[in-house]
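Model it.
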Amino acid sequence: MLANAGRIVTREELQQKLWPADTFVDFDVGLNTAIRKIRQALGDDADRPQFIETVAKRGYRFLVSVSQASTLVSETSAPTEIAEREPATHHHRRWYAALIVATALIAGDLWWITRPNSHLAIEKRITANPVEAPIRAAVISPDGKYVAYADPTGAYLRLVDSGETHPLPLPKEFIALPSSWFPDSAHLLVTSHVRGEQKASVWNISILGSSPQILVDDAESGSVSPDGTQIAFFRRTFVSILQREGGAVRTAGQLWVMGANGDNPHIFAGPTDLAGAASLGIQITAVSWAPNSQRIAYIERHTNFATAVTGDTYQLRTRDTNRGEPQTILSDHRLASDALSWAPDGRLLYALRTDTNNDLGDYGTWAIRVDPSTGKAKGKPQPVSEGLGWIGGLNTTADGKYLVLWRGNTRSQVFISAFNKSAHRLTAPRRLTLDENENLPTAWMPDSKSVLFLSNRNGPWKLFRQDLGQPTADVMIGARNMETTLPRLNADGSQILFVDVPKPDDASVPIRLMSIPLAGGVPRLIRQNRGLSNFACARAPSTVCVVNDFLGATSTFTTFDLESGQGREIARFDGWPNYGLSPNGSLLAVVTDEHRGRLQFLTLDTGAARDVIVKNWPVLRGADWAPDGKSLLIGSVTPAGTSVILDVDLEGTAHVLLESDPHTQFAWAIPSPDGRYAALNVSTGENNVWMVENF
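Modeled.
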C-alpha cells in the first residue's frame, strides 16, 4: 500500500501478492487480521481513518503521501536512526510503525522504491449529499473561495474554508446548473433548462443577488475564457440510439464561441449541420480554455451506429481561437466525455476509465502537458488521482492550487413494483438488487417468479437471475463463462438469446445474434450482420421473432427463424427507434419520434401501419407490451422533471402508472408474464464533489 499510496489496492491484488495460487488459507480472515494489526500499529481508526481507508467491496487505500527516502536503511537501524533526529511524539511513533512495515516487506523480497511524483494525489470529499440529493454540476471559483453546485433541490454556494453552504440568490423556479465562473469570482455562468423539455439557455448570474441575465438561447454548458472576454458553449440536437441497457438518448452537438455579453456567436468546432451530425453520431462533449485564452481544448465523441452496442470512441483535441487546424492530443475509448480542465501550469486534465479489464465504470484523473501556443502534447500522460465512480466535470483554480471534480455513483438498479389493478397503478417500488454496481433488467422467467438482469458486479457483464423473495442473485448457467449483451428469452423460455460483438473496435466484423440453452450448453450462431442491434421474440404459442439492423441512417426490421436465422423484411425506419413486439407476435410498436410522442403500430401479416400520438406526453422512453397485448408500458417525463411509467393504449391514450421521486429516474418497466409485477430500471445513487490539492 505504501508503494501505491493514493491508489485502491484490491483484495485480489493482496491475495495474489501474499499467497501463492496453490496455498490453502482462509484469505478473508487472514487479510482482515493483517489490516487490523497494521491499524493497531499505526494507531489508526477504521471508522475515521487517517492512514488506511477501507473501500467497500474493493480493497484498501493508503491516504498519506509517501516520499522516497534519501537512502535505504537496514531493518534494524531504521527506527533508531530516525529516532535520534526527532523526538518520539505519538505522531512520529505511527510513522516508525509504518517504516517497520515497509522494511518487513523488503525483508520478504517485496522490494519497492517510490519515484518522484509516482504516487497519486488524494481526493477529499467536500460535500456529503445523500442518495436523495445527487449533485448534478459543480465548479470552483478562480480565487478558490467558493464551490457552486446544483442538486435536485436547487443551486448552492459552498465556502471552501468554512464549509458553510447557502442557496444561490435566484428567482423562484429558476433552474440553474453552474458550468463556469467569470474571473472576478462574483459571477457565474449557468445553464437553465425548461422543465420537462430539451430546451436550454445560458445565463450570467451574480452571487451578490442581482437578476440573472440571459446570454444566449438554445445553448448549454458555457465556459468563460480565463481573461473573461469570451464564452464557449454547446448547441445540440437529439437522436435516439441503442445502448447495452436497451435504449437511450444521445446528442449531436457543435461548439460555439461568443463574446462575454453574448455578442457575435459563431460556430467553432463540430459539423455545420446538426441534423447531419445526429445521423453521423458526432458530438462535442467537453471544453476548456488554455491559460492564455488563445486556444480551446475539447472532446469529440464519435458513435459508429453499426457498432453502437459496444460504445463510443473519443478524441481529445485543441484548436486556436482563429480556428486553425485542430491538433489531436489523444484518442481513447476510455475517455470520460464530460470532464476536461486546462490547468494554469499547462497540463490538460481529463478523466479516464481506470480498469479496462472490467465494466465497473470507475474513473481516474490524468494529465498531459500541452503547449498552449501550438496545441501539441509535450510528454506522456500521467495519472493524477483515483476514485470510485464516474467523473462528470473537472476544473481548477486560477493559481492551480485546487482541482475540483464532480464524481458520480448513480447506477441503474432493478426495482419491483406490483400492479394495483383496481386503481390502475403500480405500487411503490422496492429494490430487488442489493448491489451498488450496474444492474439492468432485461426479461422475466416464464413463471413470473424471478427476473433476468445484466450486472457488472463481478467485472464483465454477466446475466443473473434473482427470485422475487431472495436478497441474492445467481449467475445463469449459460452465461457463467461469457459476457452477454441484450440477453432475452425465446418464445417458450427454453433459450437465452444474446448479442455477441467479437471485435468491438473493428466495424467491419459482423455482430452476431447467438442462442444457448437455458440449462447450459454451447452457444449457437443464429444470424450475423455488421449493423445488428436489437431483437425481440413473442411468447408461446407464437414463434415470431424480430431483429433490427442499423446501417447508414436506416433501421431495417426483419422476422427471423430461430433455427435457420432466415426471415423476411417487414419495415424500414429512419434513425434507431425503440420498439416492442406484442406477446402474440401480431403487432410491432415502434417509437418513431421519442421527442414528439409519436408511435407507429405495424401489423406483421399485412404490413398495414397506423400512426398515433401519445397525447400530452411528448417524451417516450422504451416500449414494453403489457401481457394482454392491449397496451404498452412506456417511460416519460413530467413538466416538473420527474420520471413516470405510462400505460399507453393502442389509440395513444396514456395513464400514469407510477411517478418517481425527484432523486430517482425510471428508464423502462418490463411487466411479468402473469401481469402481476413490473421490473423497473431505476437510476439512483449518491453524487458528490471532491477536491484535490498538490496535484
